[in-house]
């Protein structure tokens, strides 16, 4: 079994991902979605969070050798960054979505050492916007950002284009296709719902959903 399938099954098992083809969720953007992903749920499962941390750490070792610092995005990326930095025995930071409005007004929490090579830990990549906000904040403080590693991605061309334009590589442990396949194998969704799930994802990738 591949890592993406293992993680997809784990997310379904712990309830971090729900699929409701016939009773869709509504995203903050207003898009009706048959899938809702909340990777914060994995914090409550020691076995699954360890599996995720191991996968993230291995991805960093493989894709971004020379990493000196692990940075989590606030808030969902923070706990995973903590577990990964512990596994890799590396310093950790976390990056706010915007500078705080009190005290030092900092956007990055942790010791800042300009020139250090950092990898960003994100829980989920949709358009890539929040990840790239963190990347820019780190660059502004003098870090060399090697890339972004996430638990899950929707695999949207918009995200791929945004990362490419920013000159940043990214890798995810699992994705939408692996998730729907895992749900099918587990009997979480009906065979008859698969075409609709595939069409929804295709429409999302093409920017047809508003």
Explained architecture:
With 210 residues, the chain is an alpha/beta fold. Helices cover 41% and strands 22% of the residues. The protein has helices at 3-14, 46-63, 77-88, 129-140, 157-166, 176-186, 194-205; strands at residues 17-19, 25-26, 32-33, 35-37, 69-73, 92-95, 108-109, 117-125, 144-153, 169-175. The longest helix has 18 residues, at 46-63.
Question: Helix and strand layout, with pairings?
Answer:
Layout: H1 3-14, E1 17-19, E2 25-26, E3 32-33, E4 35-37, H2 46-63, E5 69-73, H3 77-88, E6 92-95, E7 108-109, E8 117-125, H4 129-140, E9 144-153, H5 157-166, E10 169-175, H6 176-186, H7 194-205
Helix pairs in contact: 1-2, 1-6, 2-3, 6-7
Mean pLDDT: 94
Major β-sheet profile: 6 strands, mixed
Query: Percent of residues in helical segments?
Result: 40-55%
Shape: globular
Q: Encode the helix/strand succession as letters.
A: HEEEEHEHEEEHEHEHH
User: Rg from C-alpha positions?
Assistant: 17 Å
Structural class: alpha/beta
Give, in spatial order, the strands making up the sheet with the most strands: 7-6-5-8-9-10
How much of the sequence is in beta strands? 15-25%
Would you report the number of β strands? 10
Instruction: List low-pLDDT spans.
Output: none
Distance between the ends:
36 Å
How many alpha or pi helices?
Answer: 7
């Amino acid at each position: 079994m591949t890592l993406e399938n293992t993680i997809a099954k784990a997310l379904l098992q712990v309830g971090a991902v729900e699929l409701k083809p016939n009773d869709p969720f509504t995203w903050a953007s207003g898009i009706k979605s048959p899938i809702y992903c909340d990777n914060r749920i994995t914090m409550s499962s020691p076995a699954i969070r360890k599996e995720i941390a191991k996968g993230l750490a291995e991805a960093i070792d493989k894709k971004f050798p020379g990493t000196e610092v692990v940075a989590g995005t606030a808030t969902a990326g923070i706990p995973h960054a903590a577990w990964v930095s512990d596994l890799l025995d590396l310093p950790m930071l976390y990056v706010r979505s915007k500078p705080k409005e009190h005290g030092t007004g900092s956007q990055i929490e942790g010791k800042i050492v300009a020139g250090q090579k950092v990898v960003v830990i994100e829980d989920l990549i949709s358009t890539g916007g929040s990840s790239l906000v963190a990347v820019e904040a780190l660059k502004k403080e003098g870090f060399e950002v090697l890339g972004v590693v996430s638990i899950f991605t929707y695999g949207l061309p918009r995200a791929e284009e945004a990362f490419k334009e920013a000159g940043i590589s990214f890798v995810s442990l699992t994705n939408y296709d692996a998730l729907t396949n895992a749900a099918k194998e587990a009997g979480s969704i009906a065979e008859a719902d698969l075409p609709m799930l595939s069409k929804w994802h295709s429409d999302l990738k093409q920017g047809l959903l508003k």
